[in-house]
Amino acid sequence: MVDRQISTRRRWLTACVGATAGVATLAGCASDTENDGSEADGGETGSEETASEYGSWPMAHYDAANTAVAPNSGPDSKPEEEWSIKFEGEPTTPVASNGVAYVGVRDDSYYAVDISEGETIWNYQTGEFETPAISDTQVFVSGEGIEALKPGNGDQIWASGHEPLSNLRIKQGVVYGSSDRHVYGVNTGSGEEVQSIEVSSSIVSFSIDRNRIYIKTQQNKKNYQIECYSMESGNFMWDYEIQQSNWGHGGLKFPVTNGRVITRDQKALTTIDGETGEGRIINEFELNLTVSVSVADSVVYCPLLINELPAVDMESGERISDWEWDPLAGRINWRTPIADSTLYVWASRGVSSGFVLIAVDSKTGNQKWEYESQLTGNPAGPTILKDMVLFPDDYGDRLVAIK
């Protein structure tokens, strides 16, 4: 058993007391076919009205379906650094709710940070290093399997007792995580295992919609397989083979929207029917797709090698002619989250240059603003909140807030 250390450095925000809307318990009621990408199939995103002035970002890539599409508005104009906090190790992409950001750090601890002041509230040591997942009543971290913590002080509520699990997703009162070849589902209230799925090979990521769990496994260096299982029974439904090379980070995630998996298959943009497993190539490019695609309002944004970012209509497969991306903006190094009709793009403009975060109108491709960061390592995130962006600086061991 890993020894744990908890330290509380300041009082819990009084604004958090009495919060009633749990992110992990709010599920959508519409069918798969009602979602066009502007609302996540993942569903577990909480109430925007009760998630504090900053909004919420409850898990990596925002929701269980890995859409990276959020309602938060982000900064309207060019932001400046609001604060940064330095850790004794590289931080993960942060999640946030009720005015608090939660982050895993490579010192094998998890930290709660006051978003308004940039101060540490508490830290909790598990010996693991993963992006947390959160509801209004629990923080889920990797440790003894999945561990549930109290948001106010970091005290442990329960531990599932598995080996350490990663890729934490929340869906319909269950928190899911993966080991090498298993995906486990754990009841958020009791910590008891309610689902166990064994797959064909090593798991790299998975996504969940209202009925199914889609798991990407790595068969060899460039060959992957997406395997689909019933969320209720865990029974195998279908698999689909794809190939891809990863030129940037965030390339192994894939969104599920409108009952379909959206994935890259080398130079091809492919959709897979969630019920039947039937794949369809909707567009082919001259260059490889570099990182994971993003989709909103039935438009797929496809980062390509050598500074291209075409927008493709998901139904027709045609490029949208009114969409323009400036190739001089730089090479895209992370998938582009979408918040309130704005794409957030990490781009690099040369070996000697740092990374630039660019806000782009998702309808036209017009640039709204850009922020020159001090990042010299690999970009990750960003986490988009109301009028604020959070991102990790892996080389500087910092969590940075810009506003």
From TrEMBL:
InterPro entries linked to this entry: PQQ_b-propeller_rpt, PQQ_rpt_dom, Quinoprotein_ADH-like_sf, TAT_signal, WD40/YVTN_repeat-like_dom_sf
SMART domains (alphabetical): PQQ
Acidic residues biased stretches: 33-51
PROSITE patterns referenced in this protein's UniProt entry, alphabetically: PROKAR_LIPOPROTEIN, TAT
Disordered: region residues: 29-52
Domain Pyrrolo-quinoline quinone repeat: 80-238
Superkingdom in the source lineage: Archaea
Protein name (Swiss-Prot/TrEMBL): Outer membrane protein assembly factor BamB, contains PQQ-like beta-propeller repeat
Organism: Halostagnicola kamekurae
